[in-house]
Amino acid sequence: MPPNFKDQNEYFYHGGWTPEMDNLLLTSILREKQMHSFEGTVIPVEFLYEAEATIEEETGVRVNRDDVYNRLQFLEHRYRSFKGLVDHAGTRWDKPSNKVFASEKTWTAILKNSEFIGAYTVDGEPEFKQMQMLFSGDGLKQNKNQEVITISDTTVEDVEIDKTNRLGKVHVRGQSSSATLNPSNRFDEVGNISDRESSNGKQVASCASSSPNAWRHRPYE
């Protein structure tokens, strides 16, 4: 049995976010991507606004685009962390029960590298199926001349992330600001903000590094 860690909810839900809101966010983005035939990990900005509206309509909780954007980063952090866990030698994921089994020695070694993996010592990732559909795409495709957010190795415009918040609370700044990323999320070493244009002249922003190894040099965080 793995060592006792905090309840999974203590790792996942801060700043007013709930399991229902995570499910609504993922469901909304996937639905919009399917309706508009967006493939890979491309997320048009319009889809973030749609997710924002869906969450408010269904839960009564008001969020903004930056809240949605940063929650998507955290959800991808969870996806990469859990995938790294179940791919680790010596672990076994029982999908029907959504539990991960490993020897105490294996758990100890994994948890030494990433405390966040403690979230999965009792139950697995509750949204893994939807996360996999959203975050594991191999190709990127941009359609309909829309502004997009791309999960790739670039930067994001006019956003600074507060390092004190594990969810990466966003503060929108002026044109000259820079982005400081939460050490707990995988979008490491992004550096200063810069603008770039897509091939069709529309603004393109990006959420993340595409490399799962960019977790502050820790394999599971």
From TrEMBL:
Annotated region (Disordered), positions in chain: 173-221
Biased composition (Polar residues): 174-185, 200-213
Start and end residues of each Myb/SANT-like domain: 17-109
Basic and acidic residues: compositionally biased ranges: 186-199
Pfam families: Myb_DNA-bind_3 (PF12776)
Top-level taxon: Eukaryota
Record-given protein name: Myb/SANT-like domain-containing protein
Organism: Salvia divinorum
